[in-house]
Amino acid sequence: LSSLVAPLPKLWTHKSPLFIARTCANRTPRPFFTPHRMASNPVNPTDTDPTVKSPPPVSPPPVQSENIVPKKSSPFKRPDGEDFRVQFREFLDAKPTPPRTLATALNGVFVVDKPLGLSSAAVVGRVRFALEYYCRASGDPAAVGRSKRKPWIKVGHGGTLDPLASGVLVIGVGNSTKDLNTFLKGDKEYITTALFGYETATMDSEGEKMNEVADLLNVSVEAIEKKLPEFIGDEVMQRPPQFSALKKDGVRAYKRARDGEDFELEPRPVKVVTYEMLHFDLPRAEFRITCGGGTYVRSLVQDLARAIGSAAHVAVLRRTKQGQFGLDGCVAFDDLQDAEVIINALKKGKAVNSDGLDAAQ
After folding, report:
1. What is the pLDDT of residues 282-303, one digit of tens each?
2. At what angle do helices 339-348 and 120-137 cross, to 10 degrees?
3. Is 303 noted as a catalytic residue in this protein?
4. Catalytic residue, candidates 80, 83, 113, 162
């Protein structure tokens, strides 16, 4: 019928007989004894014959309280009334704790004496490789199924040292990597040697020579010591070098500098606690600098030379202290091949629970 009516849209309206017939066929039948119909057509005999009395209403039997079912039961209740949360807690308490593995016990910090020519990331990679290899060789359950290409032991450092710098590098292992941010913001001590006569693009001995001065007549002990107090304070404005890890419009500054872009980083305040000269022998001068996080020693040396009317760059840079760690007790880079040396360094620094580590071993 629908296929015949479909080509005739004018006949299929809300007033057409076909529409009414189909609507009535799909509608649920309405009960005949509705309230308004019962008023005009009573069917109860008591309504027509007053002599007929209706039977008294029968009250339902009393319902026992124990048979009452709440309308909305607790989602944590089972049909028998028990709370499954209590049983789940008992299950967790009865579940045996997994044995502590060596990889999970490796938590703490220690100090490495970073040599020249290596980046901080290379030191972190050496430590991670030694620990992962030791865990595999010792049959640690945590090493089962681990990929040799994907690192699975957390290792990080507490402050980047340039490849041309050496000295204290704080290494964190395991959960202690979360605490490395305190070392990034803490005070650091450097011993640096400045070479007067010219500047470089990178402000160290690796960059291209530039801004060479004709003589060093302005460079003297008196001139340097007169200008040093100007670079000491809690908010010393400093312009970071272009060859740095800072970002400029979302791109690392050293990448832009290597591509030959001409740009300048905005000056920012830094903290310089001490800035003193230890030794002077033209064209070199040695300084001890204690500063806060984010301070560039290369910029301090260049700004000091410009303040006395000369030019200089950093020839040697060595970090001697970072936070509570100094050169005493540092692990040599060549000793990082032995994982037991790293574990002993963690124990010595009391940065790890030695009892738990011994048990795991």
Report:
1. 899 999 999 988 889 999 999 9
2. 100
3. no
4. 162
